[in-house]
């Protein structure tokens, strides 16, 4: 994969049914399936930053600050730390503890449940676990909305944030607006602090240089490395779903390299508007420029 990379795109929309059929055949023929999942998969599953979720869970914040979507609110310089935490508690509730509304993850699990599979994902929304995927077959490389770490960080441990997201106060749960009077601020005594150094805890997300790779992360990385070793020469299907160009070095480029170096491997990419492959592996690529939800339900 050096020099200039020549890419080929997906066939025209009219060829999509034939491409889906090719993907079905590749799935049937594969000894192993590697799923590479990016943000587009959860979007296809109905996890969006606007719409019902925003009006249902964030109407007070929208009234006060005029946020147009949940995502931009996450970066707002709130006046107090407690307000920031209240916002993020609800955000995490909606994007980590609630299951995505669509059947996308369930359809995907049906396709691989009885197979030798592995999931590599940049998503931090826990939807694979919530859908019932075997967690020993998952590597969530960028962290998880459900984990807290030291903000410094002074040590490489993480802990579950359920207790913080679902804090029970006299007005109910901060994440769950109780009745019509949701709390917009988490009191300072309820902000979690590092058990080692006492600094505030932060989310375990790879957004800057402070990301902690905890024991679970390392175990998952080892299992992924082991899976790759075992399937280097196997008939492996690399199925890439909704991976964009934000962090192509984690899924997209390694998939292209793996398929280029194993003549029995197949690359499949389902992506609205961005289904491409290097010309070197064109004949072993199945490129589908279509809605992931539609493609998976057609396969299921
Ligand atoms: Zn600490």
From TrEMBL:
Keywords: Metal-binding, NAD, Zinc. Zn(2+) binds at residues 150, 154, 194, 197. It comes from Collinsella ihumii. Residues 13-300 form the Deacetylase sirtuin-type domain. InterPro entries: DHS-like_NAD/FAD-binding_dom, Ssirtuin_cat_dom. This is Sir2 silent information regulator family NAD-dependent deacetylase. The keyword Transport does not apply.
